User: Which sequence fits this backbone?
């Protein structure tokens, strides 16, 4: 065989080997490697944010990772957390896909469109992304973020913005005054989604990774607990219950229901914040210092530097435990409003409540200690006395040399205040301040 012929055969063999090698490489690229599945479920907030950050890190530390699928099932949540999660998804260097099953409402819209591929399960829906409150400033910033991400990912920005701003009208799609909400079929028809997938296998096919191995990550119990405790509904309620409990404790003798309720509520509030990764043990130390100052204040009449310092430290601890100052302000505003309402109700109805009487007069006061039973003491009505232990609104007064359990008419009376017995309510003596 001459050299020319040999060279020809050699080139043919090399070409065949190249084709085989290239096919092997392509087969390896599609058939091997891992795709991580990260669930985005429940309220979008700090807990979800921390979970997503850790999950993405886990996926990218795997050298065989070829893609990440985010399964989305949420009614929405906080805008700041949604924006942070969106940035994380956009910055992922491998293929990403979102799989809406069964809903991506409100903040979930931003999470969905942040991925490279958008898929939806049959019967799922996406939209209704209006901010609460829907002020012009908040709405403008939010729709701007939605438009920006939509443009970056090749989605119709006007279509996405119409999900948040009801002033936007799109012919044959949504009328002015309505928020856009789309089913899976409608989203596919409008090219918002790339495919209506019946399962993860079809999502993998859309990504071009049909034969990849899937690794499913699960939301831990700690994260789910943190989601509940730091939610926009539960967190302000816990803060409110904590402050209301403090008020009840300050107004009653000894340590009772109010103090217990306050400790449980505050423990859950700050515990949820720690689980969500918002803060560390420093906030607990600040809060304990606040409680110490309030206890000092409770032991003395009036309201002075210790009480003021305690309130300031509570505010500081709440700010430290919140992801943003704005969230802290909203939570504190709700808590203070609820506390004021509770205080008004306590002052108005507590003196007339036998249950509150059991709370406030639960300490044994025997005759050996100089106390006299208040049962059927109608003879005291109209008599004058002096407060011996300040009334909050319960305490003791001295009438004709006797120390007697009494309650004020819902007002705070310091020791040494002159009072008069105005009526009997069952076994309780009710007094009022006199000049």
Assistant:
């Amino acid at each position: 065989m001459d050299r020319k012929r040999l060279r020809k055969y050699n080139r043919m063999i090399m070409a065949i080997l190249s084709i085989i090698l290239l096919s092997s490489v392509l087969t390896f690229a599609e058939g091997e490697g891992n795709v991580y599945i990260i669930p985005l479920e429940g309220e979008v907030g700090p807990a979800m944010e921390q979970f997503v950050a850790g999950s993405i890190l886990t996926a990218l530390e795997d050298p065989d990772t070829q893609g990440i699928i985010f399964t989305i099932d949420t009614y929405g949540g906080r805008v700041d957390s949604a924006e942070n999660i969106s940035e994380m998804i956009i910055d992922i260097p491998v293929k990403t896909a979102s799989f809406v099953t069964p809903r991506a409402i409100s903040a979930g819209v931003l999470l969905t469109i942040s991925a490279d591929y958008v898929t939806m399960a049959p019967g799922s829906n996406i939209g209704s992304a209006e901010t609460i409150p829907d002020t012009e400033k908040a709405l403008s910033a939010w729709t701007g973020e939605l438009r920006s991400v939509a443009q970056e990912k090749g989605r119709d920005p006007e279509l996405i913005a119409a999900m948040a701003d009801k002033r936007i009208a799109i012919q044959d799609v949504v009328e002015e005054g309505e928020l856009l909400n789309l089913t899976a079929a409608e989203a596919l028809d409008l090219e918002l989604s790339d495919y209506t997938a019946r399962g993860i296998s079809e999502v993998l096919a859309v990504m071009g990774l049909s034969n990849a191995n899937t690794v499913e990550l699960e939301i831990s119990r700690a994260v789910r607990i943190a989601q509940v405790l730091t939610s926009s509904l539960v967190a302000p309620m816990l803060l409110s219950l904590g402050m209301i409990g403090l008020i009840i404790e300050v107004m009653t003798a000894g340590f009772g229901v109010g103090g217990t309720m306050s400790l449980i509520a505050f423990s859950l509030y700050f515990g949820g914040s720690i689980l969500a990764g918002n803060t560390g043990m420093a906030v607990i130390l600040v809060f304990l210092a606040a409680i110490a100052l309030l206890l000092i204040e409770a032991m003395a009449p009036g309201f002075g530097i210790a009480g003021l310092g305690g309130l300031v430290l509570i505010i500081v601890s709440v700010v430290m435990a919140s992801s943003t100052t704005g969230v802290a302000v909203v939570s504190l505003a709700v808590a203070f409003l609820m506390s004021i309402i509770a205080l008004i109700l306590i002052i108005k109805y507590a003196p007339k409540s036998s249950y509150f009487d059991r709370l406030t007069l639960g300490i044994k006061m025997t005759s050996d200690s100089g106390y006299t039973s208040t049962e059927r003491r109608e003879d005291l009505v109209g008599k004058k006395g002096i407060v011996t232990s300040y009334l909050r609104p319960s305490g003791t007064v001295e009438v004709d040399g006797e120390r007697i359990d009494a309650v004020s008419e819902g007002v705070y009376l310091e020791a040494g205040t002159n009072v008069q017995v105005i009526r009997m309510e069952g076994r309780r003596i009710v007094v009022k301040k006199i000049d």
In short: The chain has three domains: 34-219, 223-358, 378-433.
